[in-house]
Amino acid sequence: MTYPSRSKRLRVSGVDLRIRRQPRNSVLETRKFGSSAGFTLIELIIVATIIVLLAGLVLPQYIRQGEKATAKAAKAQIESFGTALDTFRLDVGRYPTTQEGLEALNQKPAGVDRWDGPYLKKDVPPDPWGKPYVYKSPGDHGPYDIISYGADGVPGGEDVNRDITSWER
What we know:
Layout: E1 7-12, E2 15-20, H1 27-30, H2 41-92, E3 134-136, E4 145-148, E5 164-165
Antiparallel strand pairs: 1-2, 3-4, 4-5
């Protein structure tokens, strides 16, 4: 059995020329432009919806982690103050009074002889929410109380507004 030739012979001025035909299933003939090229609007809307749903699930978790980290930073600062206050007590024989406050850890209070500070490397920072810590000595829960009133700056509250104290672990 012989197959039809894909080329045609043409004789021009005594020279044989072969003209090759394109096969019927060529790439140019089968390529269609239209519904199969690119993404449809429906597909783009579905992908955008999925992204929005995932962001709605992940973003609140991310925000809660930031809030927990802020509360942990306040707790760490309060513990650092506790260590400095204990060193102050060892040197002076007592904790700073409420009037002297936490500033007594960096500046020698009047009438104190054996002060060997500063007991903190830097000035007393505000709490992570930018408000001053509350110091009371003698405290209601021990020799001293240190309190951060949380994000709202008022006693009590829950979540980010919860008070961070020196006597709670």
